[in-house]
Amino acid sequence: MKIDLREHPRASDGLADGEIKVCSLKPTNGFGIDLEAALGRVGGDEDLLREVAQIFLKESPGLIDGVRQALRDRDPESLEFSAHSLKGAVGNFGTGAAFSAALAIEQLARQGRIDEAGGMFSELERALSAVVAGLALMISESP
């Protein structure tokens, strides 16, 4: 996959003018991940992106559990905080469906609209599952 990362200083170290770095990460089309944006967030450092992805894969079950528990407890403050935390974490990989669902839940919680936020939870779970699958694919070793 070719991504032009010349505007990212760490990614362009050692590249000649006009040369485009070839990304060794596996493509993530269809998983709600914007690989170019994610690489941009880490200055084009693929190793750092892999590390961020691994941390997310480890931490995401706890993040979604926080949202689930706040919904069960009908606690708008905890729900807002949990959705915000999840939104921030998933936002490292773009602003796709998981980010949008977490944002919607966060906003609904802020307004005290717990039932509506609960109605968004299955959408968040589906979108987050896709991101998790895409990240696992992205960081997996090449065959």
Outline the structure in words:
The protein is mostly helical. The protein has one domain (9-139): Four Helix Bundle (Hemerythrin (Met), subunit A). It has six helices and no strands.
List keywords for this structure.
143 residues; mainly alpha; Four Helix Bundle (Hemerythrin (Met), subunit A); disordered N terminus
Summarize the structure.
With 143 residues, the protein is mostly helical. The protein has one domain (9-139): HPT domain (Four Helix Bundle (Hemerythrin (Met), subunit A)). It has helices at 9-12, 35-41, 46-73, 76-90, 97-110, 114-139.
Categorize the overall geometry: elongated
- Beta-strand portion reads under 5%
Order of helices and strands: HHHHHH
Pick out the low-confidence regions: 1-12
CATH class: Mainly Alpha
Radius of gyration: 17 Å
| Tally of structural domains | 1
Largest sheet: none
CATH architecture: Up-down Bundle
Average of pLDDT: 85
What's the total helix number? 6
CATH topology assignment: Four Helix Bundle (Hemerythrin (Met), subunit A)
The CATH H-level superfamily is HPT domain
Distance between the termini: 16 Å
The tally of beta strands, per DSSP, is: 0
